[in-house]
Amino acid sequence: MSDKYILVVDDDPDLVETVALMLESKGCEVGRAYDGVEAEESIKQRRPDLIVLDIMMPRKDGYILCAELKANEKTRNIPIVLLTAVGEAVPTTTYTHADGMSTEADEYIAKPIDTESLWKVVNDLLG
After folding, report:
1. 52 and 20 Cβ atoms separated by less than 8 Å
2. Which domain holds residue 90?
3. Tens digits of per-residue pLDDT, 69-97?
């Protein structure tokens, strides 16, 4: 895994750090972005091998970014793991599980994140 570059995108800096440190401890190189727009810029600079992407973020949410990446020939093959706290938040947000199912994300992980479960998903996708 040491040659794998993973982009972690979430508007919660603590979560980004937690996930980044776990991935780095497994030998991955990690990029960090704090919203969808920042993630897009980062992807243009360096194509990640996998993206860990939060759904609810300012400027551009994870559903929109995921759909755009999957629609683009250059980025459609990048595995995307969507992080979702939407389950508990659905009554208070405009996000729905139907939105999630309509995206072409490769996997979903519920928040709060269990880093070992996330690692298993990442490992399987990059396998």
Report:
1. no
2. 5-126
3. 999 999 999 999 999 875 554 444 454 44
